[in-house]
Amino acid sequence: MSSTIARLTKSLGRPAVLTLALALAACGAPGGGAPGSITELDYYTDQQGSAAWQKVLDTCSKKAGVTIQRQTVPTDQMLPKILQGATSRSLPNLVFTDNPTVQQIASTGALTPLSDYGIATGGYYDGIVKAGTYQGKVYGLAPGVNGLALLYNKDMLAEAGVQPPKTWDELTAAAAKLTKAQRYGLAFSAVPSEEGTWQFLPFFWSNGADLSRLDSDQAVRALGFVAGLVGSGSVSKSVLNWNQNDVADQFVAGNAAMMINGSWNLSRLDGEKSLHYGVVPIPTPAAGGSPTVALGGETGVIPATGQATQQSAAKVLTCILSPEVMQSWDTGHAYVPSQKDVAENFGQQHPNMQPFVTEVATARSRSADLGEKYPKISQALATAVQAAITGSQTPQQALRQAQQQAGGS
Amino acid sequence: MSRRAAAIAFLLPALLYVLVFFGYPLVYNLLMSLRDFSVRSFYTGQAPFVGVANYVAALGNPVFARAALNTVWFTVGSIVFQFGIGLALAVFFNGRFLGSATLRALLLLPWLLPLVVSGAVWRWIFDQDHGVLNTALRLVGLPAIPWLTDTGWALPAVILTNIWIGIPFNLVLLHGGLRAIPGSLYEAAALDGAGGWQRFRSITWPLLRPVTGIVLMLGLVYTIKVFDVIMVITGGGPANATQTLTTFSYSLSFHDFAFGQGAAIGNVLILVSTVFGFVYLRSARESLT
Q: Do A257 and A159 reside in the same domain of the chain?
């Protein structure tokens, strides 16, 4: 009896061990196989974005003569996935990641500078080049950038006799006037993560505040302004839980007359036939100013995975960055081309994108000054925004605490 | 010899499994918590040894005290109601009546749903302006409650969700325990003139004790480590109001990239769970002797 079992265990055990060994070996191997085939990682999981991106990859796969195996993960699993790949030396050959994370990844030494492949950085917006630069070398470039603007419901504004606001005072007045029983004047996202920080930064920066000192007077005033919009009832308190997609839902449903949101929503809004919307730059503290928004967009980077695959990945990246492909991607996903002259052309062709094109010229890279320290400061700032909106702390208290959190590392 | 060999052969797969999938991560996490583990460390494999500095930093973080207290409230609040309601339902369904099995099966639904789905639905239910819950409150003339937007209400809201999710688990195990109690005892008690409450106190409760112990123990360990529900509903907000030790650990690791500190909090959680595990094992042994 026991010998039968022992034999059984043996025969069952061997394949199991073998499979495990194979799995471990697979983990240790560098990503990709033949140089004619590369792996690519991105986080365009939404239907429209994913389809538009697939088209870009198909085009460039043909042009560069390289087969591309695409992998898509949700945004918040991007970095864990990359770190996992870095540990096991199995990084994808080409990665498109949120631009503030590039320096973080480059600091590990896992990336290769784009100058190795003759990819030039001339003609790009300053902000996006800065975001991809680590210790003097450019590691990543984006085919498209984006920013936040004020989107408004034309019918609702006309009905209330309100002009699209240009200054903070006008925004306060317009939001109050547009607020009705079942409707809020304005919506934005204030979730406790990078998304919340990104939405607050246009107010923070446009008022002259600086991420190196979170509790400056300018910062306190900016937070006081945003929290005041919620406090006065012109903005729902639910913004604490709304991510940017939820905000767009509220806007489409007619529960908000205006919203702060990114250009990538336009293709979706265009699909709503009964919705007439307009776009203006984010209102500024005083008349005549230009807003400073944070620069968004995914940056393509090439991890060190071996000469042959790196060269193939570079060919594909070069193709994606070429003006025609760039333009088709940006049209498909409503992004702003990252090259200045392409963008200017683009803005003229797509009037609704013009405010975004204008803003991108003065947009700031989130990680340009702070580099690797940015994520921690961003987290502290998002918490401060929440504290001020809930009213559990005054803007001053909240920002002072954020500064202590961010400073004490 | 062959008996012994067979015994070892039986043990080996389990032992190997435990070593690879529990032992290794545990040791790795412990080592990680003693090092300055940054994003860089993942690629270079280098992380300078810093002793207990990560523990000092993480435990000294003002959010830690809040997260620890929230974890206690979350765990106690969830377990008391999950168990209480689960037990009441188990006793109720122990009586045979038409549709009892069907209803019991339906009650399992919350348990079968992916946590992310439950979380997303509850987030919608709790919505301040258009949520079902507040609409219902307004209908009966009560003021709307800022479920997820008030620092005082957010924690009760996520606890409520977790109670809903946890009831089936308690119901199933307790119901199984009730089935094991011989019906003759109840008949005898009824003949002696014992009422419903007395039968519960003198028969059900004492005989259910072993199962109760397991249910509470498992509930405790499951609840302490709850992560997805909170992450989906509030993300730890507003303003850290629903931050528990698990979400705090995640935030330290993947928002601040202080992986060593995140690991330190993780170890604190493991320690707490282990302590309760031992307490349970001890009490179980005592009740046997």
A: yes
Q: What is the pLDDT of residue A294?
A: 94
- Whether A23 is covered by a domain: the verdict is no
The pLDDT score that the predictor gives to residue A3 is 41
Tokens of B35: 């090092």
Higher pLDDT, A24 or B167: B167
- Mind listing the pLDDT tens digit for each residue in B31-63? 999 999 888 888 888 889 998 999 999 999 989
Scanning B269-288 for CB atoms below 8 A from A yields: none
Q: Are A255 and B129 inside 8 Å of each other by CB?
A: yes
Give residue B194's pLDDT.
87
Q: What angle do CA A367, A369, A371 make, to 5 degrees?
A: 45
Mean pLDDT for B105-130 is 89
Give the per-residue pLDDT at B287.
67
Judgement on whether residues A135 and A154 belong to the same structural domain of the protein? no
pLDDT classification of B165: cutoffs 50, 70, 90 = very high
Reference A397, options B239, B73, B267; nearest CA is B239
B2 at interface of A, judged by CB pairs closer than 8 A: yes
What DSSP element (H or E) covers B251?
helix B245-254
Residue A27, in any domain of the structure: no
Confidence of residue A7 (pLDDT cuts 50, 70, 90): very low
What's the confidence (pLDDT) of residue B255? 86
- B106 pLDDT above the threshold of 50: yes
What structural domains and CATH numbers belong to chain B? Answer: 63-288 (1.10.3720.10)
pLDDT in tens, B273-286: 889 888 888 887 87
- In chain B, residues with a C-beta closer than 8 Å to the C-beta of A390 are 149-151, 238-239, 241
Of B45, B129, B236, the CB nearest to A192: B236
Q: What is the pLDDT of residues B221-261, one digit of tens each?
A: 889 989 999 999 999 989 999 999 999 999 999 888 889 99
The answer to whether residues A168 and A278 belong to one domain is yes
Q: At what angle do helices B62-94 and B205-224 cross, to 10 degrees?
A: 150
Same domain, A205 and A270: yes
Domain identity same for A233 and A377: yes
Query: The domain spanning residue A56 has which CATH number?
Result: 3.40.190.10
Looking at A345, A362, A379, the residue that finishes a domain is A362
CB contact under 8 A, A192 and B239: yes
Q: For chain A, how many structural domains are there in total?
A: 2
Lowest mean pLDDT among A290-294, B39-43, B94-98, B186-190: B94-98
Residues A316, A333 within the same domain? yes
Residues of B in contact with A109 (CB under 8 A): 40, 43-44
A191 and B42: CB-CB below 8 Å? no
* Residues of A with Cβ-Cβ distance to B241 under 8 angstroms: 390, 392
Q: Is residue A224 located within the same domain as residue A341?
A: no
| CA-wise closest residue to A129 among A118, A117, A140, A119 | A140
> Which of A116, A80, A146 lies closest to A317 in space, CA to CA?
A116
8 Å CB contact between B100 and B93: yes
B234 and A CB contact within 8 Å: yes
Smallest CA–CA distance from B38 into chain A, residue? A108
Closest chain B CA to residue A194: B255
pLDDT at B196: 86
Residues A101 and A114 in one domain: yes
Across the interface, do A240 and B44 touch by the CB < 8 Å criterion? no
Task: Say if A30 falls within a structural domain.
Answer: no
Phi-psi region of A2 (alpha: psi -120 to 50; beta: other; left: phi over 0): alpha
Q: Cβ distance A240 to B147 under 8 Å?
A: no
Measured at the CA of A16, the angle between CA A14 and CA A22, to 5 degrees, comes to: 105
CB contact under 8 A, B39 and A105: yes
Chain A within 8 Å of B149 (Cβ-Cβ)? yes
A4: closest chain B residue by CA: B6
Range of the domain at A323: 37-145+296-362
